[in-house]
Design a protein that fits this description.
The protein has 305 residues and is mainly alpha-helical. It is built from twelve helices and no strands. Helix 1 runs parallel beside helix 5 and helix 10 packs antiparallel against helix 12. This is ABC transporter permease.
Length: 305
């Protein structure tokens, strides 16, 4: 059983990390009142630019920085469309998803001279000091898992224990009241949307150079939407989002492990569908029981009551 359970736990944690980063990004964006359907596209951009940064510089750390900057840049576009132009936030996010997919696919050809995937680049190495190297599960993780858990704790503290978090929640619940108290609604929403792109880009990096140091078309495979579902399932809270991501990641890890079961013969497509079935069941069972920020998705016009 140890040969099955321990690798399954480690695999769940590794697969949860990209979802947690993107899910936290969604929490910050929607807590400020901006719906971010574009998490999928921001993860795609992050995954590609992480590989590109590592390819150009030879450093996976620089790859991570490339991913975060690229994710933040495309999120700034979503922020401008949603906040300044007051465009439909769902349509803006959908457009970003389509653009990011096309951009990454287009850049593979001229940069890597290949089609469909990039070259294999240097990934982020993982080693633990002393006796920790022999601790079950812990020895089979990566730095992104540890960073994801730390960021959940930090995000929870910032949102619910600091004045900045109070301002973020205020502009997402009642922006006009926040404005009368001197809080710059546009500034806070820009900050949170761009931060969501940075975190989603980091999630993309965790998926590429954190697990397999290569970018392939379709490798994100809807994880941005799963992270969005995890955020809703987690009631727009960092800790709740993390546990929801763990659940969905367990579905992914289990479907990979289940394909090696010799006693049960089912089509691989059935196992591959498990994470998405879990997502649909979670949304169907809990979406009506969660409470989004009151002004989520509503453009704010200064001076309007």
């Amino acid at each position: 059983m140890d040969n099955v359970i321990i690798p399954l736990i480690a695999s769940t944690l590794r697969m949860a990390a990209p979802l947690i980063f993107a899910g936290l990004g969604g929490v910050f964006s929607e807590r400020s009142g901006v719906v971010n359907i574009g998490l999928e596209g921001m993860m795609i951009i992050g995954a590609f630019f992480a590989v590109l940064g590592s390819y150009i510089t030879g450093s996976p750390i620089m790859g991570i920085i490339f991913a975060m900057i690229a994710g933040g840049a495309i999120a700034a576009v979503h922020a401008f469309l949603s906040i300044n132009l007051r465009a439909d936030q769902v349509i803006s996010g959908t457009a970003i998803n389509l653009f990011a997919t096309a951009l990454a696919s287009f850049l593979i050809g001229p940069i890597f001279k290949t089609g469909g995937q990039t070259d294999v680049v240097k990934g982020l190495s993982y080693s633990l000091p002393g006796f920790l190297k022999n601790v079950p599960v812990l020895k089979d993780l990566n730095w992104f898992v540890i960073l994801a858990i730390v960021l959940v704790l930090v995000s929870n503290f910032v949102l619910f224990k600091t004045p900045l978090g109070l301002r973020i929640r205020a502009v997402g619940e009642h922006p006009s009241a926040a404005d009368t108290l001197g809080i710059n609604v546009y500034k806070m929403r820009y900050l949170c949307v761009i931060l969501s792109g940075v975190l989603a880009g980091l999630g993309g990096a965790a998926l590429s150079i954190g697990i397999t140091p290569v970018y392939k078309e379709g490798m994100v495979a809807g994880r941005g939407f799963i992270a969005l579902a995890a955020m809703i399932f987690g009631n727009w809270k960092p800790t709740g989002t993390m546990w929801a991501c763990m659940l969905f990641a367990f579905g992914s890890a289990f479907q990979m492990a289940a394909q090696s079961f010799t006693a049960i013969h089912l089509p691989n497509e059935f196992y591959a569908s498990i994470p998405y079935i879990l997502t649909m069941l979670a949304l169907a069972g809990f979406v009506g029981k969660t409470t989004p920020p009151k002004a989520d998705g509503e453009p704010y016009i200064k001076g309007e009551r």
